[in-house]
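2024-03-11 09:14:02 INFO receiving multi-entity request
2024-03-11 09:14:02 INFO entity count = three
2024-03-11 09:14:03 INFO echoing inputs for audit
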Amino acid sequence: MLSRLKEWFTTGNITVRIMTVVLIAYCVLVGLVNPTFFSLEIFLDFVRNGAGQAVVAMGVLVVMISGGIDVSFLAIAISSSYISTVLCTTHGWAKPKTFLSLLVVMGISCLVGVLLGCVNGLVIYFFKLPTFITTLATQSIFHGALATFVGTKPVTASRMPRSVIEFGSGAIFEFTSETGSWYGLSYFAIPVVFAVGLTWFILYGTVFGRRIFALGSNALAAKRCGVNIFAAQMFVFAYAGFLAGVMGIIYAADLRWVNPITMVGDELIVIAAVLIGGAKLSGGSGSVLGTLLGMAMIVILRSTLVLLGISSSWNDFFIGAVILVSVAVSAWRSRQESKAALRFDYV
Amino acid sequence: MSATPLVEARRLTKTYGGFAALDGVDFTVMPGEVVCLAGTNGSGKSTLIKCVSGVEPIDAGQILFSGTEHPAITPTLAMDEGVQVIYQDLSLFPDLPVWENVCFQRIGGEKRGWFVKRREGMAFATMQLARLGVKVDPKRRVERLSMGERQSVAIARALAQNAKLVIMDEPTTALPSREVDALLGIVKNLRSQGIATIFVSHKLDELFAIADKITIIRDGVKVGDYNPADLDKEKLGFLMIGKKLDVQPVDRSAVFSGTPAIELDNLVKEPYYRGVSMAVHPGEVVGLTGLIGSGRTEMALSLFGLNPPDGGEVRRNGRPVTVGKPSEAIAAGIGLVSEDRQSQGLFLSHPITTNVTAAILDRLADRFGLVSLGRELDVGEEWCGKLNVRASSVLNPAQSLSGGNQQKVVLAKWLATGPDVLILDSPTVGIDIGSKADIYELIKTVAAAGKAVLLISDEAEELEMCANRVLVMQSGEIAAELAGADATQAKILAAVRGG
Amino acid sequence: MPEKIQRRWPIDMDSMILAGILVAILAFMGFALGDSFFNIRNISSMVSQIPEFAFLAMGMGVAMITGGIDLSNVAAMNLSGIVLALCLTSSRLAGGVGIWGAILIGAVSALLVGVACGVFNGLSISRFGIPPIIATLGSMLFFSGLGVGITNGEGITGLPEQFTRLINMTIVELPPPFLFMLAVFVVMSILAPRLTTGKTLYMYGSSRVAALFTGLRIGKSLALGYALSGLFAAVSALILVGRTNSIKVGYGDTYQLQAILVVVLGGVNPDGGKGKFGNILVAVLILQILQNAFTLFMFTPYAKKLIWGGMLLAFMVVRTLLEKWSDRRKIRARMAQMAEGA
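2024-03-11 09:21:47 INFO inference complete, emitting structure
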């Protein structure tokens, strides 16, 4: 086991290695300054707070590996969760507080997410548009269309399907802390494990996943090798939409409230996590583990600055700094490599 | 010969927006045959390959695989019929490991399942590489391999798919010479296994070394199929080009002495070249040749500040200079016409004038940094006139010009900087024969004006005509110097191939 | 000589189409809304809203001409607005140098902050080779994080009225920021294609590798280009702060998408190398008139959002189709030429 670990550490992905070291070092630092950091309660809190973003980060990772970028997932998440909860409450579906009813809500949400993702995929494939500006535009379109054509009235906790509320408040296992309050591992851990496992399996275990890597690595070669580029491109955006649908329900459950007007969350954080985790904007590289570590880094940083005695107002500043430093390091390294290899793609 | 051809193309026609890249070409490959496809750049060779491999749909004609006609040829169909193309860029996936590149079509195992069969694929890839006699760690990412290793991976990938026909598009350009011999060995090996090869190369002696049949294409039309025994280089060249070049060879009796305009002393840049010493005098044209990967282009880039050397010294007019970036090269009076005209030399969507004045903006600008448009236009027109650039307006975008005129624009850009040293890297690649003669004359004029010219070229004929003496590089070192009566095409070619 | 004239007064398809759209929209407004659109009050309110957005759009235009993008310019605008507001509300500063001294110091430091933000972007792109999307996405978080850190995320209000009056006064019915904006557009359209730095950035945008092989000063020019984008962001901060009498991180977030929209609409190729500031101005006017019309029609902000997104997508699709069509036409023309020659 130890030798296996050692082998992984010496041969594995360098970004993942650096990340691991930095993350551990930071945790030790925080722990030294404030020993309350090393508690199960805080750790379980991270899981809960980072769950939605971790799920959707997997989708963004897949898009980035294929050589694109998706910034429309928040709009997709809000659209799909709103449509799904509204449909379920008006039609009385998903009334009982059962697992099945949660699945119905989740299923509708994912379906809407997939459809919207397909819109992205179709436009980008058929008109060969730059993915960033396109998804920026569709983000606006999706959100604008939702508020204009579906509605602007928020779904409140009292109207929300009970199963969703239960999903947000319940825990897989629970503890009582010394102060007498309850804490536990939120149900949100389940979709995270599901999304990570599924993405891992697709990317590393299926032929199709390898095709996605191939497409991002060298699109022309992929075309020549008979890779179905349409299918791959449609899949990555639909998959990102699918996971955005999951994220939407997680947010709904967390906040007990779906407001179609405000977009909760930060798309930047998600994209940053994927980038910090070693994905390249040009495609072909990126890892599930790295993305998880990147997500962990940001979630931990965000909630521990207070423990270090820094006001939480400075969160974004430090996260921005971490993003810039990490992308600068990897961009610098690949530029040096290109220079040495006399590839002039670095300018 | 009544056997069914492996591939038979009948009256193949392919047009791009009205321009016939292929016009009624007949073409056959028998099983196990090595067919060499010869033709100048733009003659339609690449298009033919694309059609046969299904990458480009054909407009008219038929392609039969083993006698069977198909309504439409897709890349997948061509691959199923055993046609494998190794493109010049190799079409590998740099981010994926070697084994996935080799068995790309069967990552899912022999039955092409849905799931990655890692162990099976790895073993299979190792076996394919062993067939070529190459040792590469199948777990390494292709990004980290040398050019030769990458080439092997690409061939192994073709073999891995039960190729009956391997199409190699200029496979030797990026290879060091010993690996070229290894490659030719592999082609012969394939023939003995009954696998046919279409071999595209500019290097005529490679064609003669392995071809069973030479098919010549010119301007999208087939000139004919020839038995290599019936051809010699001169005749082949004539058939490819269609006419003979009419240029006076350079005067070889001239002697150059005094302080060289540029002098290299023991210049080193690992892993590209080492111990390179040479000098070019004002008024002299020094030819530099060698295979791609021999270090010639890499050295030129060093002189231009894009590949800083590890050691040694560069002297301009006897004084040491360090050139760390292109702007410093320009300041030191060095210009480089790089080999890739389209991507490195030109701003294709910008007007001709902008391209001509691009390197002298600072000089055209007044003290506020403003470049007067009238001034820019004057300079552009002046140079286009001098170099005889044929364009209806100097404001047309550079992409509207033909290859030869584009190259003249790049030359104008560098001549406008008034360099003392002009490095020309493969200046006539892909240029029609008329413009070629113009450029040869231009090189002579430039030299006569007292500039030192370093002419890098693959074409022995070009060197014989233009260069006062010729240096030959091999594996990063200067292997031979041919001057005076020695600088003949035959001797240059022999020296390049390490003879 | 006609060539020189052609070069000096270039009339291209983009300009014609844009002018056509502008005229058509104005005509439609006159027809559909009549006096409720064409009245002094409405027009002057429109005119006062244009400048702050126009400067952001110009900065975005500079970045997109280089083939990049500047996603941080709204954040830079907020940051320099905060610096300005802090200077203006500092009683110690006003006590020391007087209110006009404080305004001067505040404005200069705001502009310097904007330039610093831009140079920061330019260097991270040219020195480290970070792709512009990522570099400016990161710096967007960084700049706005800095702003939130300084202000604790709260707004700054209660600025001295000397400053707001300065920004909101009128010269012959027109506010000075608008006149200044027009002047800057004129200067930019004349200088951008003529200055060496401008030329370098256009060329860099069209082919980065060729720019390298031509020995152009890429690093310096990129830093200057993004610095200009930052400077424009700071200018729009001055106008925004003066107009709203307050500043808070998050102001002007909707400008981000709209800035990209007008730049694309103005004919700037997102891949870089092409674009005219005059056309961006026309696009800004079009957007503002539409914005105004939507308000008069009482569209919700979401409907606007939908329309802006839809327009951006539609323009990119139309652009691709037009390019395909003109490529085909060019090839045909060239073939005809060759046939003639043969």
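2024-03-11 09:21:48 INFO post-check: Chain C has a mean pLDDT of 88.
2024-03-11 09:21:48 INFO post-check: Strands of chain C lie at 156-157, 246-247.
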